[in-house]
Amino acid sequence: MYSRFKIAKKYIHYWLTASNGKGHGIHSPFVFDFIKNVLNDSTNYPCYQSIEGIRKKMLGNKNIIEVEDFGAGSSVIKTKKRMVKDIAASSLKPKKYAQLLYRMVKYYKPQSVIELGTSFGISSAYLASANESAEVNTCEGDSSIASIANKNFETLHLKNIQLIQGDFAKTLPQLLSKLKAVDFAFIDGNHRKLPTLAYFNQLLASSIATTIFVFDDVHWSSEMEDAWEQIKKHTATTLTIDLFFIGIVFINPNFKIPQHFTIRF
Ligand SMILES: C[S@@+](CC[C@H](N)C(=O)[O-])C[C@H]1O[C@@H](n2cnc3c(N)ncnc32)[C@H](O)[C@@H]1O
Q1: How far is the CA of 15 from the centre of ligand 1 (A)?
Q2: Does the residue 209 lie in any domain?
């Protein structure tokens, strides 16, 4: 993982060089539409408040749980006993990005949604709330964390979400073998190069032309930046949008020449 200083430097570079977030000078009608109707949709949707209420509860929860070390995301705190509030503070996607996921699902209406990395279920809750007819499968390795997430889904009365507990290496192939196709995938766990590329390839095998992939923290480490570059260059990739803290990938072959955008958000 890069130091905070290095990430701040990279973020400043991103901010200064990215296209402005209003869509000026964007020649792709699809991306222009995305900016106008998804990225910049400032509606305060009703579920935002209830999900953020759960995040607040997690951020104030001083219970200590035993957690297993999965992936590269736990490098902030290495001990196995951790306070719920510390995990919440270091691993949950900030509301700005979690709510963008909500708007993407609301707008593009994927039916089959996969999330790798549930944690306490905040981003999962946004994904599931965006389209009640969508089926959200979210994967989490740690059993204590998973059980808190399941309680949060109950509190929010979310019926279209299923949590699959276990290492992605096992659970993802099992899950994919049961699904007809994946329409939307949020990859937010195990921030290492080879696993990230492996998840992309596995998900690609179950994708359709309109499948959307969202990768978390694509500038978090040199491994993740390498993975992101390879994903951008992949023959299946036809359009990418880099928002610094997340990278979005489209594979629709109708976007004939691959295009890569970096947009301020
Ligand atoms: C960054 S957190 C997810 C945050 C969540 N998406 C949110 O924003 O609300 C990543 C989660 O992935 C889990 N994880 C990481 N690597 C994993 C693996 N190989 N198998 C299963 N779970 C894993 C971790 O236990 C952690 O809870």
Answers
A1: 27
A2: yes
Nearby residues of 45 by Cβ (< 8 Å), 6 or more positions away:
99, 102, 106
Domain containing 249 — which CATH number? 3.40.50.150
Residues 6+ apart with CB under 8 A from 170: none
Using CB distances shorter than 6 Å, the residues near ligand 1 are 70-71, 73, 91-93, 98, 117, 119, 122-123, 139-142, 145, 167-168, 188-190
Q: pLDDT at residue 58 above 90?
A: yes
Q: Domains in the chain: how many in total?
A: 1
Question: Per-residue pLDDT tens for 19-54?
Answer: 987 878 788 999 999 999 999 999 999 999 999 999
For a ligand 1 pocket test, name from 69, 118, 139 the mutation site with the most ligand atoms within 8 angstroms of its C-beta.
118
pLDDT digits (tens, 9 = 90+) for 198-256: 999 999 999 999 999 999 999 999 999 999 999 999 999 999 999 999 999 999 999 98
Closest-CA residue to 114 (of 51, 25, 41, 207) = 207
- Which residues are bridge partners to 137 per DSSP? 114, 162
74 domain residue, yes or no: no
- Tell how far the Cα of 224 is from the centroid of ligand 1, in angstroms: 15
Q: Which domain holds residue 27?
A: 4-60+92-262
pTM: 0.96
